Amino acid sequence: METKISSVRVRRIRGRCRFSKDLYVEPEGLAGGLALWWGDNISVTILCKSKNVIHVVLESASLKVPVFASFVYRPPKEGERRRVWDTL
Prior knowledge:
By secondary structure, the chain is of the alpha+beta class. It has one domain. 23% of the residues lie in helices and 34% in strands. It contains two helices and five strands, in the order αβββββα. A three-stranded antiparallel sheet has the order 3-4-5, with no helix packed on it. A hairpin with an 8-residue loop joins strand 1 and strand 2. The chain is flat and about 40 Å long.
């Protein structure tokens, strides 16, 4: 999710939602900020993170094989979208 707030506030909210782990990318000014939350029953290996993209490998007892996942926040400005597509 795009948070637009500091990691301190995001982690406080994460705790209330009962997620135990997180990855956070700080916002730039009043824009951006990405948060990814998960519980103890899943293992997350971060491959890459930026202000628009988080690439991870997910593993758990219920998954037969590791799962690669990308979480993307599309930039609102059309000119910045090409950079995100190149990253993907």
